[in-house]
């Protein structure tokens, strides 16, 4: 009898530990995602880094340029997020606009892969 009760207690403890662990992981992932978006926003608006506002209207950015298209509905325009990453990075096969003024940020070493991913995380929320 005691053995059966002990097994039930240990099973309940194992299940509750797994549930709490999964909840903590989900919260940490959400916090990481939010911080990645915030960092991406800072990089995108930074005149010394992404400088997206020099050419694009984006979010609530002040004094946007109008050389490039407005950064709106990005999930609809780029359902495959990797294609947007490739475009910002500067992969030649993604440059579908002839004579585009947009620099190849990754290819030219302007931004790191991590910075590009954070900017894309932010842009993808627009």
From TrEMBL:
<dbReference type="InterPro" id="IPR030999">
    <property type="entry name" value="Thiosulf_SoxX"/>
</dbReference>
<keyword id="KW-0732">Signal</keyword>
<feature type="domain" description="Cytochrome c">
    <location>
        <begin position="35"/>
        <end position="126"/>
    </location>
</feature>
<feature type="signal peptide">
    <location>
        <begin position="1"/>
        <end position="29"/>
    </location>
</feature>
<keyword id="KW-0349">Heme</keyword>
<dbReference type="InterPro" id="IPR036909">
    <property type="entry name" value="Cyt_c-like_dom_sf"/>
</dbReference>
<protein>
    <recommendedName>
        <fullName>Cytochrome c domain-containing protein</fullName>
    </recommendedName>
</protein>
<keyword id="KW-0479">Metal-binding</keyword>
<keyword id="KW-0408">Iron</keyword>
<dbReference type="Pfam" id="PF00034">
    <property type="entry name" value="Cytochrom_C"/>
</dbReference>
<dbReference type="InterPro" id="IPR009056">
    <property type="entry name" value="Cyt_c-like_dom"/>
</dbReference>
């Amino acid at each position: 009898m005691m053995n059966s009760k002990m097994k039930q207690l240990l099973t309940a403890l194992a299940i509750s530990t797994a549930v709490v662990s999964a909840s903590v992981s989900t919260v940490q992932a959400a916090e990481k995602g939010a911080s990645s978006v915030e960092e991406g926003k800072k990089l995108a608006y930074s005149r010394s880094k992404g400088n997206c506002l020099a050419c694009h209207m984006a979010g609530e950015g002040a004094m946007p340029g109008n050389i490039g298209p407005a950064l709106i509905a990005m999930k609809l325009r780029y359902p495959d997020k990797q294609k947007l990453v490739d475009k910002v990075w500067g992969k030649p096969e993604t440059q579908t606009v002839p004579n585009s003024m947009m620099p190849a940020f990754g290819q030219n070493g302007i931004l790191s892969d991590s910075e590009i991913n954070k900017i894309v995380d932010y842009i993808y929320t627009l």
